[in-house]
Amino acid sequence: MKLFFTMAFIIAACSNNPSDTVESIPVEFNEIIEAPPTAQAYPLSEKLLLSQDISQKLVRSGGINFQSEDIEKDYVKIKSMLGGLNAYLENENQNNDNYRKSYNLSIRVPSEKYDSLLNSISGIAFKVESKYSNVDDVTERYYDLQNRIQNKKELEIRYREILSKANQVKDILEIERNLNEVRTDIEMMEGQFNYLSKQIQFSSLQVQFYEELPYELNSPKKKGFWVRVFNALDNGWQVFLTVLVGLVTLWPFYFAGALIFVLVVYLKRRNKKHP
Which candidate, 64, 84, 189, 258, has a CA 20 to 30 Å from the CA of 8? Predict the structure, then answer.
């Protein structure tokens, strides 16, 4: 409160007598600039926080994993559900191999419609293998961020009021430095607040489902006798080609060996002629 009355006195003095400058009150400027942005320094924000309705803020998330009889048909059904619930597909992945086809969907759905979507997806599943839901109470964090942002904005306004009355370079630079720090804090906290608000408004649902593929001749899942014989012949041929290519790559050594052999034979014959 001492700092508040000091600042009020400064602003009133400057407005009553235009000839007064920052130079005559350097101590007060330093006190205001260095004052930490605590809740006690901002009674207005406390009143706002007390006057507003406090409602519980929850972040909901969950997932479901199930087996499908017709994966493409179920995929179309799930996508058709989203439009009616104002939900949207945030991310999707599709995987195919010799054993199965699968989808992995990340869905954002309005929190009040989360249960409806989860129950609808469960209803189309051939076999639900797992299902889970989590609820995180972020009420305290939500209102704490909101109050801190309001406090920082009030501090920014007060700095700007003081800056408009300052005319010494060193005081102007000091106030602008503090203004930049306050503005950076506001932008960072507003980013956190917006992200948290989105999590509260839209719940996250992970949907994983798959379809077992039927038996095929070239599938390694099941192998009959003739399939195994054919695979063995094919593997043998591939090994032969691999060895042949490997031998061809060693041609410099063959050439060097041939030169050494010719040189050795030549030296032996020469020694025999000239004992």
Answer: 189
